[in-house]
Amino acid sequence: MTDTRAVRTRTRGGRVRRPVAAEPVRGDVVLPPTDGQRADALSADLEVALDLLKQAKDVVLVAHIHPDADALGSALALGLGLARCGKPVAVSFGEPSVIPESLRGLPGQHLVVPPDRVPANPDLLISLDVGSVERLGSLARLLDTCRQSLVIDHHPSNTRFGQFHLIDAKAEATVVLVAGLLDRLGIVIDRSIAENLYAGLATDTNHFRHANSAAHLLAARLIDAGVRPPELMHPISDSHPFGWLGMLSEVLGGAVLDRAAVGGSGLVYTVIDDAAKAGLRQEELDSVIDIMRTAQEASVAAVLKQTEGDSWQVSLRSRGPIDVAAAAAALGGGGHTRAAGFTHYGDPQLAVDALRDVLDS
Ligand code: AMP
Ligand code: MN
Ligand code: MN
After folding, report:
1. Nearest-CA neighbor of 124 among 158, 152, 153, 155?
2. Does the pLDDT value for residue 142 go beyond 50?
């Protein structure tokens, strides 16, 4: 572990500044950590995480509720790797009680157990791609009954619940952190593990639109390990039942453009209520935001999806400098700068009003 007190930093002009203190202070002003300090903290956290993984007698890996390919892919990839080392492994998520249909092609499904059959007292509980306790759903109970817990995530809004953390808000996806752990553990990334990693990387970077060169290099490695992107990604991102088209026509037809919102840079939103979603999977509902976000006249897109009765899951996307993670956090949710969400209870129009207010402030 690097001692941050021994780190020498350069000023913008290239001059070497005095060594920085572990708690960076100037007078009574606390400065934000430098990139160097963040990297040091991250590499210390990585060593702790590796130690926990090596020592664990048995492991439960938990993805966030309504898992996406990054959450489930991370849990399955790490689960497959640890199982290969001879460790008893279970993978789960708080809800729904079955694996989303679009993710059933990911290798390692035999590791998945329904939430009510998860071992109650795991030696090590690992949450993956989970930004807050609420996103563990019913499996939050394991935080009190496990021996140790490790949070692996890339959400800037992570609340640092649990005991130990490997959180890198600059990572494109949680699978990037998992790939790093597997490499450091000397676990070979075979095709089964690679498919899980690729699926998470592709979906969280919006199919490599937001991927840096390191992410592209990781993707190349995964393809060399046997991933066939078209076959792997088709059921995850490109496949919907015919009824989806009717739902789209209704829901997109009802979209509202508020040009004055977001300080004049525009908000586009639509509502998917119980009647509109009838008979369709979560996958169909979640696809709507990707169409809404293409509206040129709006820098923020929102889709309000009725979950049960009075409660609504709101998906947000933004372009340019607009930080929807901050807006979502102000409304009790979280996420990333350009993709975030929150839960609303009550009249959906009130959620739109509240969103407009926080985006304007
Ligand atoms: P989604 O629109 O569901 O694809 O979510 C986009 C991002 O926002 C993901 O990174 C989620 O983890 C986060 N997110 C979505 N809904 C919530 C919520 N209710 N609470 C906290 N984070 C959320
Ligand atoms: Mn996710
Ligand atoms: Mn993610």
Report:
1. 152
2. yes
Q: For residues 64 and 91, is the Cβ–Cβ distance under 8 A?
A: no
Structure token digits, residue 125: 């509980």
User: What value does the mean pLDDT of the chain take?
Assistant: 92
User: What does the pLDDT look like over 343-353, one tens digit per residue?
Assistant: 999 999 999 99
CB neighbourhood size of 3 (10 A): 10
| Single-letter residue type at 219 | A
b vs e for 44-57, b when ≥16 Cβ sit within 10 Å of the residue's Cβ?
ebbeebeebbeebe
Report the predicted TM-score, pTM, of the whole model to 2 decimal places. Answer: 0.90
Which mutation among 155, 205, 331 tests ligand 1's pocket best, with the greatest number of atoms within 8 A of CB? 155
Alpha-carbon span 250 to 272, nearest angstrom:
9
- The amino acid at 358: V
- Ligand 2: centre distance to CA 27 (Å): 40
Residues 192, 73: Cα–Cα separation, whole Å: 10
Q: Return the DSSP state at 297.
A: T
CA pair distance 198, 221, nearest whole angstrom: 10
Burial readout 69-100 (b: 16 or more C-beta within 10 A, e: otherwise): bbbbbbbbbbbbbbbeeebebbbbbbeeeebb
Retrieve residue 170's tokens: 């600059």
Comparing C-alpha atoms, which of 195, 223, 191, 219 is closest to residue 205?
219
What distance in angstroms lies between residue 192's CA and the mean position of ligand 2's atoms?
20
Query: What does the pLDDT look like over 4-57, one tens digit per residue?
Result: 332 222 333 333 333 333 344 444 566 777 888 888 889 999 999 999 999 999
Q: What letter would DSSP give residue 166?
A: E
Which of 48, 42, 218, 39 lies closest to 126 in space, CA to CA? 48
